[in-house]
Amino acid sequence: MLNRRRFLHSAVLASQCSWLPYSYAADATKLVLLGTQGGPNFSLMRGETASMLVINDQPYLIDCGYGTLRALLQSGMPFLNVGHVFLTHLHDDHNADLPALLGHQWTQGRIKPTRIFGPYGTDQLVQAVNLYNQANTDIRMVDEARSVQPKDLFAGTVIEASAEPVTAFSNDDVKVTAIENAHYPTESKAKIPYRSLAYRFDSKDRSIVFSGDTAYSDNLVKLAHGADVLVCEAIEKEVYRATYEKRVANGAYADNPEGVWNHIIGTHTSTTDAGRMATAAGVKTLVLNHIIPGDIEDSIFIASARKTFQGEIIVGKDQMVL
């Protein structure tokens, strides 16, 4: 019976990931959706937010929500190869697996630096990750005669949150620019220094923009102007309300359910607004990501986005390759 259950589980997984396996062509930029669930939430269908660009066989990770390490393994990309991580903001559904990724990279013997880019607080976050893994480090430095310290490999770089695109990173294969999006309201930003970013990756063959979490954002439209692909979060707010109430009834958000709901409604992108931004930016393809809720038909999202965008629309799923 146990073997039969394992077989059935494997068969279901294979049917859900029918686009696997695949190879990473050195002459093409590949977009891999590792986790597509809007959060803070995850399920057996979708992991928390994470995407990967593979450019000239090198991976660039955008966000690192819970499940990212396993999703990398499933994608066929060795997690030891990840040398660049770009965090859109510091909510836990976008960085929960960063301690696991960096800790396992060090334990498995990565000796090249891994650079983590993000808004205010990213440098402190990486320092905290190194501290979280300190006991593991101390034990293995003695028992295994390790010679490299995590603090010498893993460091965070803070990107300016600007109303104009700023260069976050560049090499011979890609230029990464960033801009502040509209995830944090003005009244919140007056009380905290934390900010939220969108990123644009321009390689030799493609331009791909990641919205991060955001309400409608003129800055994002500016960043995405003329891009090939906009990977944008999408929430069907009316549909999600019933799901949200069930979660509250089961004990979620017990400290202030309406406060959380107001945040969800006010600081995230509806599917129709995702289409509006894609149209305003003149992008070719809109990929819906950070899906809320994650268990309704694709046709609902597509119908809403089609009201405001006439280009190609793709509803993201975990392990989808574009």
Describe the structure.
This protein has 322 residues and is of the alpha/beta class. It has a domain at 22-55 and 66-78 and 158-321: Ribonuclease Z/Hydroxyacylglutathione hydrolase-like (Metallo-beta-lactamase, Chain A). 34% of the residues lie in helices and 23% in strands. The chain contains 11 helices and 14 strands. It has helices at 2-16, 68-75, 98-107, 122-132, 134-143, 186-189, 218-224, 237-249, 257-267, 271-281, 298-306, and strands at 30-35, 50-55, 58-62, 84-86, 114-118, 154-158, 166-170, 174-180, 197-203, 207-210, 229-235, 285-292, 312-315, 320-321. A 7-stranded mixed sheet has the order 6-5-4-3-2-1-14, covered by helices on one side. Strand 7 and strand 8 (174-180) form a beta hairpin. The longest helix has 15 residues, at 2-16. The two termini are 38 Å apart.
Helix count, DSSP H or I runs of 4 or more residues:
11
Bin the strand percentage. Answer: 15-25%
Helix content: 25-40%
What is the correct CATH architecture of the domain at 22-55 and 66-78 and 158-321?
Answer: 4-Layer Sandwich
Strand order of the largest sheet: 6-5-4-3-2-1-14
> Mind describing the biggest β-sheet?
7 strands, mixed
Label the overall shape.
globular
CATH superfamily of the domain at 22-55 and 66-78 and 158-321: Ribonuclease Z/Hydroxyacylglutathione hydrolase-like
Radius of gyration: 20 Å
> What's the CATH class of the domain at 22-55 and 66-78 and 158-321, please?
Alpha Beta
Global mean pLDDT: 92
CATH-assigned fold name of the domain at 22-55 and 66-78 and 158-321 = Metallo-beta-lactamase, Chain A
Distance between the termini: 38 Å
Query: Could you spell the SSE succession in H and E letters?
Result: HEEEHEHEHHEEEHEEHEHHHEHEE
Q: Pairing-aware structural class of the strands and helices?
A: alpha/beta
Which segments are poorly predicted (pLDDT under 50) over 5 or more consecutive residues? 1-21
Number of strands: 14
